């Protein structure tokens, strides 16, 4: 197969949802339909086990899921599908933002009883900012849920997107009869199923098919009226609008019953885009360029506690990756030649032979690779767009046993590089500062410092509530600013200076006084 063909058959997407909407269940069913697993239950079982055994329920659950199944590759029809999981909890949203930079499309799962929830909205904003195309799956139709028109209306209003229903439900809860496929003009009859694909599915052709009205009189009457309305009022599917992230195709179903799942998988193959070009500081890079390039969007330390390894997740952006290949880290010009690069075949890690644009590869390393690093075959390139957000919560951190200071520093350095937390070193010295977007991040870090680095650390309150990275076109002006505000300056993990404030007014005063200095709430990997 040619490079062009390999790229054209790749689909790389993330699955996003508010917790409990059914992301884990759907993920598993996608794997089932793609033939990557035979019986559902493995992903769920792992999640349940974590749930039951851990005091750190929320943390372990989050970590557990993301560790166990953060990247999955499967083949479906003629396509190679890469599925990336995202942590559902809002306190880990930074991690999610970064994962979303590595995909070409997103699959949004909505609980039909709850509609659009807070976390869905936040994630969606990120997709919108990047014009990521989104496919929507409205789940749990086997329950008493909200009226479908109501859900569609809410989607449109809250997401600010056009909604193009591809299927329409007949009934719900115990009266759920199936979905009508609007484009194929046929009804797919619901049958409950759990762990396996049954194979025998029933379809009834045509809305005026007397069998539909005969077998499902109540559901049919309502659905018929709704379908007429939707056909009149909803915009037809428009590929360009979808690809620009302005219109989302919508599917109804029940993940736990394997119902409506195959349609979503087909939509991913038929509608979602193959990998596209990506901006780097130097130039735009096309996926079909023969030379390899890729970007690290996630680092996970100690994935396997018995090995204490650290895996950099890299999205291939162009060219062809082959095992044993030499790669250059653009940040420092160093060569690496890993021979243990892994791929993620439905949660098993396997040694990787080759990969193409859109694929995710895992490179075990001991700190050589950082978030945002670009790897190439030699060219100096730096892909842009990996965001770090200014923390909104701050805590000082100290070790209980001063002899463990070294472990604390080492642990924090690694956790900082992994992006689990942001670590700031005050220019004036003293206690290191931790910055987070969500409170749970602190708990995770303290917990991991103890379990992974043997370091008993303690958080201390701090008066800071805001940080802004500072830059200036004029180096000397920046130095003057830093000198004049030395007691409020701290350096982050990559030595970028940040201005710390205890309240918004302070920031405002500084902004007014130092006109040439730019204050940033977001930093991209430099
Ligand atoms: P996640 O937190 O988004 O990963 O959600 P899960 O996949 O763990 O699902 C949350 C709960 O909803 C679990 O108890 C699932 O069994 C249940 N669930 C998922 N899909 C369906 C569905 O289609 N129908 C019903 N009734 N329950 C579902």
UniProtKB/TrEMBL annotation:
Per the database record, which ranges form the Tr-type G domain?
8-276
The cellular location(s) given in this protein's UniProt record come to:
Cytoplasm
Keyword check for GTP-binding? yes
Pfam families tied to this protein = EF-G_D2, GTP_EFTU, RF3_C
Report the SUPFAM superfamilies cross-referenced here: EF-G C-terminal domain-like, P-loop containing nucleoside triphosphate hydrolases, Translation proteins
Spell out the Gene3D superfamilies in the cross-references: P-loop containing nucleotide triphosphate hydrolases, Peptide chain release factor 3, domain III, Translation factors
Q: Is the Signal keyword given for this protein?
A: no
Q: Which InterPro entries has this protein been placed in?
A: EF-G-like_DII (IPR053905), EFG_III/V (IPR035647), G_TR_CS (IPR031157), P-loop_NTPase (IPR027417), PrfC (IPR004548), RF3_C (IPR032090), RF3_dom_3_sf (IPR038467), RF3_GTP-bd (IPR041732)
Q: Which GO terms describe its molecular function?
A: GTP binding; GTPase activity; guanosine tetraphosphate binding; translation release factor activity, codon nonspecific; translation release factor activity, codon specific
Q: What is its main location?
A: cytoplasm
Q: Which UniProt keywords apply?
A: Cytoplasm, GTP-binding, Nucleotide-binding, Protein biosynthesis
Residues annotated as binding GTP: 17-24, 85-89, 139-142
Q: In its UniProt record, which GO terms are filed under biological process?
A: regulation of translational termination
GO CC terms in record:
cytosol
Function of the molecule: Increases the formation of ribosomal termination complexes and stimulates activities of RF-1 and RF-2. It binds guanine nucleotides and has strong preference for UGA stop codons. It may interact directly with the ribosome. The stimulation of RF-1 and RF-2 is significantly reduced by GTP and GDP, but not by GMP.
What family is this protein classified in? Answer: Belongs to the TRAFAC class translation factor GTPase superfamily. Classic translation factor GTPase family. PrfC subfamily.
NCBIfam families tied to this protein: prfC, PRK00741.1, small_GTP
**HAMAP family given in the database record:** Rel_fac_3
Descriptive protein name = Peptide chain release factor 3
